[in-house]
Amino acid sequence: MSALDLAPIELEGFSVVPSLDTEALRVVFAGTADLDAVASLGALLPKLHQRAVHHGVPEVQFDFCSLAFMNSSCFKAFVTFIDNAKTAAAGYRIRFITTSKHYWQRRSLEALRRLALGIVLIESDQEG
Q1: What is the distance between the alpha carbons of residues 108 and 64, in angstroms, rounded to a whole number?
Q2: Which of these CATH numbers, 2.60.120.620, 3.30.70.260, 3.40.50.720, 3.30.750.24, describes 9-124?
Q3: Residues 6+ apart with CB under 8 A from 107
Q4: pLDDT tens digits along 50-84
Q5: CA atoms of 13 and 15, how far apart (whole Å)
Q6: Could you give the CA distance from residue 36 to residue 50 in angstroms, rounded to a whole number?
Q7: What is the mean pLDDT of the chain?
Q8: Across the chain, which distance is largest between two alpha carbons, in Å?
Q9: How far is CA 39 from the centre of its chain?
Q10: In this prediction, what percent of the chain has a pLDDT beyond 90?
């Protein structure tokens, strides 16, 4: 457990490791977020929102560089997370860090970005 009091998710073929520093609440994803990951991710994201608000972080970063795939049910959990972040009390940005190796990331995350323009940002390794 970290200062966040959140245990990482460690499933066969999928992991999520949250950490906190002075700049951001960082969440590193790896593997495949498929049907087996839905419940764990759905339970973790509301807790991440609560911790981000409690610690007053300016940004929550989701590092997807090692995430090979995410199914639509997992994306639905992010829709709820983003809706919560849009509240005035939340006060943090959401940054998805992506890789050009996985073409699905840019297309899929663009839909999430449009849910909260100015709050959700996408950073890619293609950008200089």
Answers
A1: 12
A2: 3.30.750.24
A3: none
A4: 999 999 999 999 999 999 999 999 999 999 999 99
A5: 7
A6: 24
A7: 92
A8: 37
A9: 15
A10: 83
